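Cross-posting from the modeling subforum.

Setting up a comparison between two proteins and wanted a second pair of eyes on the formatting. Protein 1 (sequence, then structure tokens):
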Amino acid sequence: MSQIPGGMLSNLAAQLAEQNALDRMKEVLDEVPRVRKEMGYPPLVTPTSQIVGTQATLNVLTGERYKVITTETKNYFLGLYGRAPGQVDLDVMARATGDETPIKSRPADRLDPELDDAKKELPESAQSIEDQLSFVLFPNIARDFFEAREKGDLTPEPLEFGSAKGPMTAHELHLAPVEFNVTVHGETYHVKVSGSGRKIDGRKPYYIRVNDKLEEVSLEPIQEVLAGVPESQETDSGGKPKRPKPSKPGDVAPPMPGRVVKILAAIGDQVQAGDPLLIIEAMKMESQVPAPIDGKSRRS
């Protein structure tokens, strides 16, 4: 088994914990090098580490290798992440790309220019290159920031500590530090949380200083645990997972919990087994959910 980075291991553990399948970690770890070889040995760093890890997890959890192929896996084989370092498996590549032809050019050359158009919408008070880039990346947040800066009332929102059950106890507060050191691959960084912003689409921005350099990060809670190792999914009194499972041949369920980002089939559409019904996002990866049988789509 090839060496797997710690960050990738924690992502795999979180995926399996949400599926109540932590006991299958060894199967996934054995599958990762197989997938990586078939993809031409991409480096196990973001984003390709997540592409490999999520595809390996899907291969194990669905019980059939490449039964579900994420959009990112498809785009990788299409060359949209650049050329693979090694030789890819042509059979897997054909299954992922279908009728589409991989590109031969540099992926970035296919992007439409955005900066000139963004400049036309910028407020007069935002003309530095930093302002322009902020506006391109986070238009809504940047616009609010420019307006607050222009008015002179730019202040970070206070950090929120507490939960639905009320204010945090001293013990819970200790588990949510606002200043700490973190060590990654032998390098230690001093981190201090300075403030937070408004939650947008389930994600809340936090402003942190890493070795006194201000950074913005967005956090989307997935699972909260008190220990460093993800816990298994909670169960009800009957011992069954809370997440409903398909019970009839026509029931549709994604291979892992995720957020529906697009519905591809309307109620009443006639579909065939294997036709894509919707696209979900799980662990920052998108994947299609196919119809399990021939039939007409309906709400259960």
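Protein 2 (same layout):
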Amino acid sequence: MKTVKRIKITDLSKKIGVSVTSISRALNGHSNISVKTKEKIFKAAQKYNYYPNLNARRLASQKPDTIAFITTIDRKAQDYVLMEFLAGLTIGVKDKPTELIFKFFTNEKDEFNYYQKLIDADLVDKFVFYRIKKNDKRIDFLKKNKINFVTWGRSSTKDNYSWIDLDNEKSIEILMQRLYDFGHRKIGFINVHQSFNYGYQRKKAYEEFHKNKNIKLNTKYYLESLDHATVTGISLSKKLLDLKDSPTAIICSLDKYFIGCLQECQRRGLVIAKDISVVGYNDHDNYLSSQNVTYISHPLAEMGKMAIKMLEQLDQGVKPENLYKLIKPILNKGKSDGKVS
């Protein structure tokens, strides 16, 4: 099969009667080009084997135009929630000249050192990251180096940087109110460790709901962990269910905890929704939805695409403090909760 020789942008401009500037803007994803003109440019670019010279573009702008997503992962717990968000990032850069790189570590020290390495080598000029701590040194480091970034999640001080996050306080309020309406007053909570800010936000909302409804808070009903595996959900559920005055309902802050809790309840012969109600968060490779359970979700892939759009706006000069998005929780109603026995 004969290969069509690649042409220059000036030659493409002459062939289709469209300015070099319009071709460049269309292929770089700018919105101020008409759909008709874009289609004409895309078809011609494919026909005449034209694609932008990224190296020349980066040399001209003196920026690598590369986004890095770097994170520490738990080797014992596959993170399907993360995978869905990363899929959104990938879709967000589709058909754009921007490069996207992923790097995973098993400890936070190596992760942080890699930020420094990428910046010193001028290989990356934009970052997206998650698992945000209450006081997250990555945020301070990138702000100090004047690097554009978007966080998936917020720190305790969410000012002067761009972020996208689930409304964690509202999500707990939704689950607690649902269980409260079913008559539950003894509600357990298996949470991620509150060193992660979303864990802290959920714990605070859990305590606040008790206060607002004048329910006595039993501190034994609250458990948290840095481990995110299903076995952790099992072991923490055992602790709650072994209490002399055990909870009638349990909220699980991770899908792995949720699955572990369901498994432990079933092992004990408890009828879900009748003997005990169990609700939680996210989904595990569509497992939860297939089991017809009640859980909170959020549009993870869409959030990934939103993060890419925010980075583009930062590149265009929009101030970081003006770019943030609080995502409304989605309640998926199932049959894992019901009226208190």
